[in-house]
Design goal:
The complex is a heterodimer. By secondary structure, chain A is of the alpha+beta class. Chain A starts with a helix and ends with a strand. Chain A has two domains: 2-157, Beta-Lactamase (2-Layer Sandwich); 174-223. Chain A has six helices and ten strands, in the order H-H-H-E-E-E-H-E-E-E-H-E-E-H-E-E. In chain A, strands 3-2-1-6-5-4 form a six-stranded antiparallel β-sheet, with helices on both faces. In chain A, strands 8-7-10-9 form a four-stranded antiparallel β-sheet, with no helix packed on it. Chain B is mainly α. In chain B, helix 6 (108-132) packs across helix 9. Chain B is globular and about 55 Å long. The termini of chain B are far apart. The interface between A and B is medium-sized, with 34 and 31 residues. Chain A: This is Cache domain-containing protein.
Chain lengths: 224, 254
């Protein structure tokens, strides 16, 4: 069921990915390249996905492989919903490498891991001091055409939304469950003893009766 | 996300003001803080007067007062015409002067109070970060502490130092502590120049201090991380108060 919730988010991310793939193929059909302008034209489609009813994500978009777009070494097309504002906002970050405030996205795990493995990835929970100042999970998938890496598509999901949905699904089924990420951080827990965001390692983790890896996720499910 | 705080911090800086008196001055102070923190860079154009006034929830008259105050301090330049607007001038001279002016304006008890709140927020953040920071976050904190020791530029040094505190709060996995820390850094940034001045000994001490906190967090020693943070901030406050007194006495004589 944790898998189901996650797969649902990844489905949206895949739709975002397809937007970029289609855009790339349309350009190629005309003998042209993907440009800053054509990528910008995807904004309404991304917004439509983001604002779809029942969508868990509060941020969605595309992060482009450095050097792919002519004249724009670094480029994001990322939109987010903010509680305080009605209209979605485009994420504006500092993309000047020489600047002290440089937003070095190529080094971020949510970009670097899918780029290297060509597999989807989840980062978090973490405090996003750069975007929405929320406590988030970031899910990303690589955007690839014929083996060429174009960037990643992704979604930001507040950990609370994810947790609430999983708890609803679980209902009153018995047994304690704790899910930890590859950094031993608690992602989800049915126990107030192991709180989301805390580190769970060593004796506590070993004390769990069963531990198994969740399929295609960098997470471990511990149960009593 | 690895990178720099930008949107979140800007939102704190451009958030509505909640106090009712001295609003023009408060707006000027908030914007000067953002410039000192490097959130608004040298040469960057500020949003239009209407936009800024709306976002900070003040009248355009109040905002114009604030801008003219910043112009007088040499932090903002207004150009007329079609490509006109207000542009940030973050020269080292203007920033150093801002720091001295700000330090002269505040009182001893205000400086003490600011230090007290910072101790509460940053001390707790350091304690929790020692319990909760991931290996990646520890690497980032260590590299920021090292950078504090390496930077030659005064403004960059204090920006990175402020960033260190914000990242400690993020490593504590707390959204609220992080927001508090960003708000405190906006207030502290204009003062921070007076913390080290050109004194190399004080600079290397600052770097060694932050490295010690990073090591305590890496060593999972939450009590030590808190204690070091509290001791360091109490010392910083003392330095600022000593300078404030000195500055005020000198201005009296002059």
């Amino acid at each position: 069921m944790i898998g189901e919730v996650i797969e649902r988010i990844f489905e949206s991310v895949t739709e975002v990915r397809d937007l970029m793939v289609e855009c790339h193929e349309a350009a190629r059909a005309e003998g042209a390249e993907l440009t800053d302008t054509t990528l910008g034209l995807l904004a309404p489609d991304i917004l439509e996905l983001l604002q779809r009813e029942g969508e868990l994500a509060v941020g969605m978009g595309l992060i482009v492989e450095p050097g792919l777009l002519p004249g724009h070494p670094l480029r994001l097309e990322w939109w987010q919903l903010e509680a305080a504002r009605e209209e979605p906002q485009r994420l504006e970050v500092d993309l000047h490498p020489e600047s002290l405030g440089f937003y070095d996205y190529a080094a971020a795990k949510w970009f670097a891991v899918p780029r290297q493995t060509r597999e989807r990835h989840i980062v978090g929970p973490y405090v996003d001091v750069h975007g929405t100042d929320r406590y988030l999970l970031t899910l990303t998938v690589p955007v690839e055409v014929d083996g060429q890496f174009l960037g990643v598509a992704g979604a930001d999901v507040p950990i609370t939304r994810f947790e609430t949905l999983v708890l609803h699904h679980l209902g009153d089924s018995t047994g304690e469950i704790v899910v930890v990420n590859s950094e031993d951080r608690v992602v989800f827990s049915t126990s107030a003893e192991w709180i989301t965001g805390s580190l769970l390692s060593g004796p506590a983790a070993r004390a769990a009766a069963r531990a198994h890896a969740l399929p295609r996720l960098p997470w471990l499910l511990l149960s009593s | 996300m690895v990178g720099m705080l930008s949107d979140a911090a800007r939102r704190v800086v451009f958030a509505p003001l909640d106090d009712s008196w001295g609003r023009g001055e408060a707006v000027a102070r908030r914007l000067a803080g953002a410039i000192a923190m490097g959130l608004i860079g040298d040469g960057e154009q500020l949003p239009s007067e209407q936009e800024l006034a709306l976002s900070m929830n003040v009248s355009t008259i109040t905002l114009r007062d604030a801008l003219s105050d910043l112009r007088a301090k040499g932090l903002v330049e207004t150009r007329r015409g079609r490509t006109g607007g207000s542009f940030v001038r973050a020269s080292p001279v203007a920033l150093a002067e801002l720091s001295r002016q700000r330090l002269a304006e505040v009182g001893v008890s205000e400086l003490r109070d600011l230090g007290d709140v910072h101790m509460a927020v940053a001390g707790t953040a350091a304690q929790l970060a020692a319990q909760r920071a991931s290996a990646t976050e520890i690497v980032r904190l260590r590299s920021l502490a090292v950078k504090v020791g390496e930077l030659q530029d005064e403004a960059e040094l204090h920006r990175i130092d402020g960033r260190f505190f914000i990242e400690v709060a993020a490593a504590a996995q707390s959204v609220r502590l992080t927001k508090q820390e960003i708000g405190l850094q906006a207030e502290l940034a204009p003062l921070s120049w007076c913390l080290t001045g050109d004194d190399p000994a004080r600079r290397s001490r600052l770097a060694a201090d932050r490295e010690a906190v990073a090591e305590a967090i890496a060593g999972r020693d939450s009590r030590l991380a808190r204690e070091l943070t509290e001791v360091q901030l109490a010392e910083d406050t003392q330095v600022l108060i000593a300078q404030h007194i000195e500055l005020t006495r000198r201005r009296q004589r002059g």
